[in-house]
Amino acid sequence: MAKQCSIALIVFQILGQAVYFVYYANDFIQLLFFDLTSISAGIWTNLIAFVCGFWLVNLLAPRMMMFPPTEKFLNIIAKIPFFSQLLWNRKSQIKFTLWITAILSIAMFISRDWVVVKHKTIEIEKLTVDKDYIRFAVISDIHAGASVYKSQVASVVDKIAEQQVDAILIIGDVVDAPVDEIIDRVSPIFQLPNQAPTFFVTGNHEYYYGNMQEWLDVYGKYHIQVLDNKSRMLHGICLAGVNDLASSKAGIKNHDMDLRKAISDCPDNSSKVLMAHNPASIKIFQVDEPKELRMIDLILSGHTHGGQFYVVVPIVYWLLPYFYGHYQISDVTQLFVMAGSLYQGPPMKMVGMSEVWVIDLVSA
Description:
This protein is of the alpha/beta class. It has helices at residues 2-22, 27-64, 68-78, 81-88, 90-111, 150-161, 179-186, 212-221, 259-262, 281-288, 290-293, 313-319; strands at 115-124, 134-139, 167-171, 198-201, 224-226, 230-234, 237-241, 271-275, 298-301, 325-328, 334-337, 354-363. The strands form two sheets. Strands 1-12-2-3-4-5 form a six-stranded mixed beta sheet. The longest helix has 38 residues, at 27-64. 40% of the residues are buried. InterPro entries: Calcineurin-like_PHP, Metallo-depent_PP-like, Metallophosphoesterase_sf.
């Protein structure tokens, strides 16, 4: 039995890591193995987190018993039989790891494309809108390609179709493959401009595959307005967009992220909303373009996926300057970071975190 378990674990490890190689394999290999390897990678992510966690428990708990304060703490915890087993019984640790990995993986697999519409009202000081409020549908991080298929992209578009909005904002990372490979998967997005003016800014993944300009040309063909360091007026608000932080490494002339250029055509007295895929861009603006940053009323971002995996959240929250939700950057500038509309890589996402946000801007 032990031999069979060892063999199964080795095969599972190979499948979990093979996703990175299968991604670059030919279509036939991907058809056979991509979903299997990407699901294995997701399960592995959950599993290894608890394996590492219990490794730390087994390493530290005996040492903590050597000091009266920490010994007292562990003894209090150990009064609860369940926690006592997790502290001192290796078999209980293994059972718990397998069960919690299975539960999390199944729940996240089911919820990966359960798209939830969420609503938020944000107050803007002296909002220059020509009506009572302006309403945006905001999406990001669809990552079509890999393990995201046309039906899942369509589910995001269907959720937007149920809303009455003044504009639709796509905050980058729509694709994870070149145009000629996945244009059919992305095609539901081309219907969005029929509902409301639709605007797009690049994310880092737009620069990873082939010629990024091909995607921008496709969006333009279907009337999705690309705000590559540009702006447009919308109901009295200046809507601006910057190329992603990764654009500086793309080798494209005059394409680097440029906030100053993006808002150069905005009227001085207008409210300004900025689309910027990576919220870490703000750290760059604070150093290089602080004056321009203070002109922005609201920045809308994605990129972080809200961690995507429960076990990853503590690390991502600790590492990233802005993780998820609503932030006050200065007395003028606000930031809103969404968790993305679908997922990247393993087809798993935390329950309720595949999002379409409907955001109302009102005057403070």
